[in-house]
TrEMBL record:
Residue list for modification 4-aspartylphosphate: 62
HTH luxR-type domain: residues covered: 150-215
Name by which UniProt lists this protein: DNA-binding response regulator
UniProt keyword DNA-binding present: yes
GO MF entry, a single one: DNA binding
Transmembrane segment boundaries: none
Residues covered by the Response regulatory domain: 5-127
Classification via CDD domains: LuxR_C_like, REC_NarL-like
SUPFAM superfamilies in the cross-refs: C-terminal effector domain of the bipartite response regulators, CheY-like
Phosphoprotein among keywords: yes
Domain of life per record: Bacteria
Cross-referenced Gene3D superfamilies: 3.40.50.2300
Amino acid sequence: MEKIKILLADDHDMVRMGLKTYLMLEPGFDVIGEAGNGLEVIERLRAISAEGGDMPDLILMDLMMPEMNGTEATRHVVSEFPAVRVVMLTSFLEDKLVMEAIEAGAVSYVLKTVTAEELIYALKGAFRGMPVMTGDVSQALTRGIRQRTVEADSSPLTEREKEVLLLIAEGMGNKEIGEELHISIKTVKTHVSNLLMKCELEDRTQLAIYAHRQGMIRS
């Protein structure tokens, strides 16, 4: 059976040496190249492509590297060489870093604390297009997605909504606001509904109090 071709990317020579030694002894794997940073990864792939050589099936990519980090390199790989899959191998478990790596196109995100068997399992899974992540990584990804959703939902007020909020704080009714801003009462009501939703408030009185607290009242 044809072996899975791997390119190792890590800025520590000893780490690459250890990974290469282990993988070359493991049936079914062939380490065909190494890189010390993200730029070298892209350069090596471009060189292989230009020469018509065998492209790697997988890149075992370190996250934090000089010149170009693993996430940025992954974006380039996915864009230029979509058939090459990336497995991120790192010591970092921050929610944001996990999110960024997966969004960049990494198939799997694996911590350097995994066992040799778990790493092999992740590589074989990535080769088949199957994401493999430990429980800690899955939880970090879930938290990252949840935080991203919260940030998307808490959209800022538009300039028109700020104008309507200011006039509400000054005690104007819908008709007066419409006349002041030269918009229909229906449009005013839409803005008020949007304000209540975005500010997570229940009525106009709370909106007025909110505006005062935000220092939005005209002198």
